[in-house]
Design goal:
The chain is mostly beta strands. Among the domains are: about 70 residues, SH3 type barrels; about 60 residues, no CATH class. It is built from 1 helix and 16 strands. The longest helix has 19 residues. About 5% of the residues have low confidence.
């Protein structure tokens, strides 16, 4: 059998392909080339390296699958009130923290009151007068008649103006005995020693030149005042120059 017809068919097919290729339109842009992938460098941890652990809160329950952290409540303690009691006798309540201030009331034996402030060393407490909650004064904690319960130094410090000096002046020619205290005031001829400072309060004046020291006057001494003693027990009345 002859091979000529097969050759003719092959030649014809190649010719048609060439003609078709020549008839394609010109100016068609080339297809875009794929971009080169970025280069990555792999880092390998050494076998001994370990990643740090991430702490997770303790959970006592779950909410929609999410752990609920546990919280600890802190309860702040409230200091107990500071209470003073006139346990074995009466206590003066004064205008300020000291015996140099005027008495303005009293804490009677068995009575108590709650302190709201203190002086700088804690020897005096600022309290409401019994039965008069709108009026306050100072009471001494360092006497045999007072009992205190509570932390005094936990109270805030309250400042008060200094007390005003008070005096007795002897205008007679007899020495005068002042009670309580037993202080003798020289006669007027000893001036200025015949004027002596005392704490505010109630006093009895007695003639120190007469037997038995008879009483010549009673007086209440207040801050900022001077009280003259003008009468002795003979009786004789004089005035200070």
């Amino acid at each position: 059998m002859s091979n000529q017809p097969r050759i003719a068919i092959t030649v014809l097919t190649v010719g048609l392909f060439i003609v078709t290729a020549c008839n394609l339109p010109t100016g068609v842009p080339p297809l875009p080339q794929p971009s080169q992938p970025a280069e990555w460098t792999a880092t390998t941890l050494p076998p001994s390296a370990t990643l740090p652990a991430i702490a997770s809160p303790q959970a006592t329950g779950t909410l929609a699958g999410t752990p609920i952290p546990t919280f600890t409540a802190v309860v702040l303690s409230t200091p107990l009130p500071v209470v003073i009691t006139a346990s074995t006798g009466n206590l003066n309540i004064r205008r300020g923290p000291g015996v140099g201030y005027n008495p303005i009331g009293g804490l009677l034996k068995g009575e108590t009151s709650t302190a709201t402030a203190r002086d700088d060393i804690g020897g005096w407490l600022f309290i409401a007068l019994p039965g008069q909650p709108d009026k306050s004064g100072w009471v001494n904690t360092q006497t045999q008649y007072s009992t205190v319960v509570g932390d005094v130094m936990a109270l805030s410090v309250l400042s008060v103006d200094a007390p005003k000096a008070a005096y007795f002046r002897n205008c007679t020619f007899h020495p005068m005995l002042v009670q309580p205290g037993g202080v003798v005031i020289p006669p007027q001829g000893s001036a200025p020693l015949n004027q002596v400072q005392f704490n505010p309060g109630d006093y009895i004046i007695k003639d120190g030149a007469v037997a038995g020291n008879p009483e010549v006057m009673e007086a209440t001494l207040l801050e900022g005042y001077t009280v003259d003693i003008r009468t002795d027990a003979t009786p004789s009345t004089t005035s200070c120059p």
